[in-house]
Amino acid sequence: MTKQFARKDLLGIKDISKQEIERILDETAKMFTSFKQGEKMSYLSGKNVVTLFYENSTRTRTSFESAAKLLGATVINISASASSVQKGETLVDTGITLDSLLTDIIIIRHPMGGAPWLLARNVKASVINGGDGMNEHPTQCLLDLFTIKRNLGEFKGLKVVISGDIKYSRVARSNIWAMQKLGVHVTVSAPYSLLPAGIEQLSGVTVEPDLDKAVQGANVIMGLRVQSERQNTALFPSVKEFNSLWGITEARVASADSNVIVMHPGPINRGVEIDGSVRDGEKSAVSEQVTAGVAVRMAVMHLLMNKEGKANG
Length: 313
Ligand code: CP
Fold this sequence. Notes:
- By secondary structure, the chain is of the alpha/beta class.
- Helix content is 38%, strand content 15%.
- The protein contains eleven helices and nine strands.
- The strands form two sheets. The protein has a five-stranded parallel β-sheet, with helices on one face. A four-stranded parallel β-sheet has the order 2-1-3-4, with helices on both faces.
- α1 packs across α11 and α2 packs across α11.
- The radius of gyration is 19 Å and the shape is globular.
- The site of phosphoric acid mono(formamide)ester (CP) has 9 residues, from α2.
């Protein structure tokens, strides 16, 4: 009998164990196959899913909606700009209202770190963090892990280089927490103004500001968008200089391991943190990441609802 996932919510990667990560990735592998085969399932039949997004999104919101519908759920999308949040309603009161509408799962994206934890404490529905400020983005991390595992096999001993805006990135934080648990060695490469204080003290993490050195022999190169919306001031002199020192270029990819994959969570700024030819090149796993995002979100929602189901037809 397969062990079910014993949580009400999925809030952060920091909070979950290596075994729970592996359980989600195993379930994702099954969902990935079903998704690619166009199979619809009934695991969430009769369930109500709400996406509650206080920040913009393309990939996360649409893939949650797609995942929920493939599993048979009803989906309602709420954006803060079109909700009673604009009239001063608090997050907790919005959550209580969604509980009264018999919501089973709320996926929240919020600019404030910790908002999903506040919501989860105050609602009966399962809460999934779709990205909170610069804190965590657990399902992005899980889809990144799934993509790495699919392409490279085992995690232990891999060298993953994360370049770009580490300081303001919830994706970097979730990935660093996960990779520490999985025995992956992480090298971060960025200007010091875009590195969080104390990162060099994290075990399993190396700081190498010279990206040309950092990428030598790397198994994965992960670029991150410069998050100007979270910065109060310009943290590097020019985009041109940033691209020349920290951009993922074809020359840098060529000096990594011959089986390297290049990843990026999106949205992408071509010619800033990654060159267009690398994004579209043969080492790029960026489109595969997006597809994996649907499967990982199917797996997470299925596990949280802890309900065995059967494929339709
Ligand atoms: N990677 C990611 O979170 O993308 P969106 O902002 O489009 O959801």
